[in-house]
Amino acid sequence: MLHEECASDQGLADYAAAVGWITGLVSFGIKPGLKRMERLMERLGHPERRLKFIHVAGTNGKGSTCAFLTRVLLANGYDVGTFTSPYIEKYTNRIQYNGQDIPEEDLLLLSRRLKPLVEEIAATELESPTMFEVSTALSLMYYGSVVYPDYVVWETGLGGRLDSTNIVMPVVTIITNVGHDHMEILGDTLEQVAAEKAGIIKAGVPVVTSCEQPEVLKVIAAKAEEMKAPLYVMGRHFTFEPGVIALNRQSMDWEGPFRRYAKLVVGLNGYHQFKNASAALMALEVLRQYYALVVEDEEVYAGFAAARWPGRLELVSESPRVLIDGAHNPEGAETLAHTLSGPTYGRRKLHFMMGMLSTKNHTGYLRHILPIVDTLILTEPDFHKKLDAGRLAELVYSLLPEYGVNPAIYVESDWKAGLARLQALTEPEDLAVVSGTLYLISDVRTWMLYKTDSEKGW
User: How far is CA 455 from CA 236, 446, 448, in A?
Assistant: First the structure.
């Protein structure tokens, strides 16, 4: 626990005020670039230089990969910081140490230290740091001046090259995959998006990727070669073979350049988690070979089996069965549809509720979802960038003739009303799914598990 070091509370009387200040910075939007982070780190005495990072980028699968890494390192006795976004229930979820949220009091005191520096930079030509930059800085302050973990599992926010998390020098880099998301910022083609993700590759730092598209791999390989960074590609340097596929307990055989693992249990659901687990395992093997990381096989098995990640193929209710999943782009929808069409989640009817942000590729998402649903409830997340449910319905109706399907469609702009309808429709043999933006997933999960509203932010 931190001790208060200055008399002034900087106008932040308590934890709620600190979170209000941080999330209020969302009004400054997204500002790609590292100049504000560089200035903040300089003024803070460079806490990032005291830490070892595993930097994880990708369109989908970042959070799950971070969960695997965190659980295995913890199982082997390491102290681990885990920085992820967005959060599911509470702002402090995004800054964790040994699986526990940063204490509210620590967040408050660190915010009081940081706020005058943020205001100082805001008065310069650099303008105000953004909400995500401030969150990144707070995590670095916490890890680099309070708890000092052995490793920080470090998830990018958006892209990579100009993302605020790219202020660090990692010991290994992971790029999970590259897909059609945030293209209004990252670029119009997969190659352009890949170039932004590959921007986290540092000179001489090993790179692990589970990307599969040839055009994407070409970009990543070229960047790795330019930076003289050893590159390990799924399908070339490490492979997996699925074994048992069952709810909350599926297994695989894995083989890499240094060793193999048989019947490794993966604690997260869906075929795509084999890919995320494979990338995480290759990164751990890199750390073992390059940096003498000590991990025992028994603890590796235990860590992968224990991994959990809220809001990703998570069954939050048994009666009726309600599954939540934060798929919000075409690749995520394809993965979700593939999983729902497999043997893991048997059902008579599939009732599906979705809510999206206005910036996403809704047509690409719906192409995977419409053919498999019996009921579709269109709603809205409680967030300022939400897509109007009526507009989403217009798009759905325009796409239905293409697939020759005729699901029952309901438009409920109030997500709580939509959820009530979803639960009422779902009989014992059916499956209900809530998917779309994580802002909706956050609200639904918190409401269903705790009957409270979630905090808001990114």
Answer: 43, 9, 15
Q: What is the pLDDT of residue 73?
A: 98
| CA 248/CA 309 separation, integer angstroms | 11
Tokens of 53: 């990072």
Spatial distance between the Cα atoms of 43 and 37, rounded to a whole number of angstroms: 10
Could you give the 3-state DSSP secondary structure of residue 106? helix
Instruction: Evaluate whether 122 touches 132 at the Cβ level (below 8 Å).
Output: no
Beta bridge partners of 238: 234
384 pLDDT band, cuts 50/70/90, is confident
DSSP readout, 64-103? HHHHHHHHHHHHTT--EEEE-SS-SS-GGGGEEETTEEPP
Report yes or no: 434 and 322 within 8 Å, Cβ to Cβ: yes
> What's the CA dihedral at 71, 77, 81, 83 to 10 degrees?
-10
Q: How many CB atoms lie within 10 A of CB 402?
A: 11
Residues 279 and 237 sit within 8 Å (Cβ to Cβ): no
Distances (CA, A) of 199 to 52, 202, 281: 18, 8, 22
H helix runs in 31-186, sequence order: 35-44, 62-75, 104-122, 131-142, 183-186
**Sign of the CA dihedral 263, 264, 265, 270?**
negative
* Most distant CA atoms of the chain, gap in Å: 67
Rounded distance, CA 202 to CA 228, Å? Answer: 9
Classify residue 429 as exposed, middle or buried by CB count within 10 Å of its CB (0-12, 13-18, 19+): exposed
Which CA distances in Å does 328 have to 54, 127, 210, 365, 435? Answer: 25, 31, 20, 7, 7
Q: Which burial class, exposed, middle or buried, applies to 385 when counting CB atoms under 10 A from its CB (0-12, 13-18, 19+)?
A: middle
Those residues with Cβ within 8 angstroms of residue 236's Cβ, 6 or more apart along the chain or in another chain: none
Between CA 436 and CA 392 the distance in angstroms is: 12
Q: Are 380 and 405 in contact (CB under 8 A)?
A: no
> Whole-model pTM?
0.92
- CB distance 207 to 230 below 8 Å: yes
User: What's the pLDDT tens digit per position in 309-363?
Assistant: 999 999 999 999 999 999 988 989 999 999 999 888 999 999 999 999 987 678 9
DSSP string, 393-455: HHHHHHHHHHHT---EEEE-SSHHHHHHHHHHH--TT-EEEEEE-HHHHHHHHHHHHHSSPPP
Amino acid at 321: R
